Amino acid sequence: MPKAPTARERAREELTREIKVEARRQLATHGAEGLSLRAVARELGMVSSALYRYYPSRDELLTALILDAYNAVAEQVEQAVAKRRTGDFLGRWRAACNAVREWGLANPQEYALIYGSPVVGYRAPRDTAAPAARVPVVLLRIVQDSHQAGKLADAPNRPALSPAAARQVDLIVEAVEDLDLDLRPVPRANLAAVVIAWTQLYGMVSFELFGHLEGVIDDKQVMFEHATNQLAHLVGLRR
Amino acid sequence: MPKAPTARERAREELTREIKVEARRQLATHGAEGLSLRAVARELGMVSSALYRYYPSRDELLTALILDAYNAVAEQVEQAVAKRRTGDFLGRWRAACNAVREWGLANPQEYALIYGSPVVGYRAPRDTAAPAARVPVVLLRIVQDSHQAGKLADAPNRPALSPAAARQVDLIVEAVEDLDLDLRPVPRANLAAVVIAWTQLYGMVSFELFGHLEGVIDDKQVMFEHATNQLAHLVGLRR
DNA sequence: CTTAAAGTGTGAGCAGTGCTCTCGTTCAAG
DNA sequence: CTTGAACGAGAGCACTGCTCACACTTTAAG
Question: What is the Cα–Cα distance from B95 to A162, expressed in whole angstroms?
């Protein structure tokens, strides 16, 4: 049974959270580069060395923020999708794509933290793998639902999916098996298209947030919508 | 007429270059975050303050490296494309895509510098715009060549390109007009597909380099090839 | 040729960083 | 009540980007 937490334990938990909150605030304003442990400690009225009792290093604190960011964007995407009718596959797809973009626009620094260049020297992907997978899993689930409903159109078979590429898709099918997501009946070409769509979605949002569309595309929203529609079509979602 | 450069001017030019070379070496090994002016100066046997005679700040030095990186990847892509027959449109397309990926794999830190999260507080895109445009211009040129040769297939018109999206594409057509690249006759749907392809290409390579495909896709080469083929098809390149 | 100005390297110094260590203090479990 | 673990404070280390006053050299103008 869980014994009642002592006062010290409660204080520790609270401070750990407060540190993260303040760190996130600084991340949003100064960026990952400008996140300073000393400044966080200063803002919280403690001395910098005390902070190390809670996070053993700056990288650990950043990792905590990364985990939160993955979960935050996933949360937003999942909620946006859940607002649509289960049978409205195209609507769910578009909602998911838009949610990713909107979360990025609202939280550019956190987006950059997880989808930009890895600032921490290659961190262990062990802990981040599961939260990071949530968004692509949403996309896959929509496709699977559509297929189960018999509404999934064939993905274009020209150019054909090579056997080697099909094997790669099989790996994904296996990887999500323990997420009550059975992709085995879904044609491989459609699943490969989801991979393309996911990287594409990420590419579009990143380009916009990182300024690569500045002076090239004026109305990013419009171009983004067109891309997501095109991708939905490619994936086999027609309605 | 250009007067002969004085000894001082030549020395300055050489040192400016040497600093950049050493900075690039450190960038490759320690990453952008770990690039230290003092370390560069130390390696060159000068005192750190002397370095400021050549680059007024760390950001300026990074900007120089960014410019070089844009030009380096563009160089590699242009050369790879030039190796193919002009009429081999699909081959040129694939060569361009592969060159981007290979440059990224060979120079991950420089890739991250230009395509990752902007580490410098939004730098002026004025100077970087032209070099940054070289790669997408290569892609556009292939499509234009293909169209001029009457070999460009229709881009899928479902879902249709919205008028607003078509207007965005028009902006691009105008923007490249002074690069002896006349895109006006090329159908807007094909050009929109190039935009999608370009962001997609970037998304794939970034995902691979930044570790987002780790544990998801085993053979990235295979998946990348499939994606580029699919994109070529989408753009209208069949052979 | 002389001289004033501009360019260049030096070293000290400032403010800031991540992180470590020691030292009392406080809390909680035995 | 005692003992050991957790904790906060403060000093300190090695490092960073950057500035400044100072000498020295090269350049160009008179």
Answer: 19
Name residue, tokens 């009550």: A180
Nucleotides in chain D near protein beta carbons (<7 Å): 6-12, 15-21, 26-28
Residue of A219, A230, A237, A239 to mutate when probing chain B, most B C-beta within 10 A: A230
Q: Do B200 and A200 touch (CB under 8 A)?
A: yes
pLDDT tens across A206-233, in order? 999 999 998 899 999 999 999 999 999 9
**B46 CB-to-strand C distance under 7 Å:** yes
Amino acid A136 reads P
Average pLDDT, integer, range B140-167: 94
In this structure, the dihedral spanned by the alpha carbons of residues A60, A63, A65 and A69, taken in order and rounded to 10 degrees, is -170
Please, what's the largest Cα pairwise distance for chain A?
65
Q: Which among A147, A113, A145 has a CA at the least distance from the CA of A132?
A: A113
End-to-end Cα separation, chain B, in angstroms: 50
Question: pTM for the full model?
Answer: 0.94
Burial call B59-95: b when 16+ CB within 10 Å, e when fewer: eebbbbbbbbbbebbbebbbebbeebeeeebbbbbbb
Give the closest nucleotide to B15 (alpha carbon vs C1'): C8
| Contact check, Cβ <8 Å, A230/B234 | yes
The beta-carbon contacts of A38-45 under 8 Å, at least 24 apart in sequence, are A44/A18, A44/A19
* pLDDT tens-digit map of A48-90: 999 999 999 999 999 999 999 999 999 999 999 999 999 999 9
How does the average pLDDT of chain B come out, rounded? 93
Q: Model confidence over B109-150: pLDDT tens digits?
A: 999 999 999 866 555 557 889 999 999 999 999 999 999 999
Number of CB pairs, chain A paired with chain B, less than 8 A apart: 163
Residue in B216, B219, B224, B231 to test binding to A, most A beta-carbons within 10 Å: B216
Provide, in whole angstroms, the distance separating residue B85's CA from nucleotide C12's C1'.
63
Tell me how far apart the alpha carbons of residues A11 and A9 are, in angstroms, rounded to a whole number: 5
Determine if strand D comes within 7 Å of the CB of B18: no
For residue B122, what is the DSSP state? S
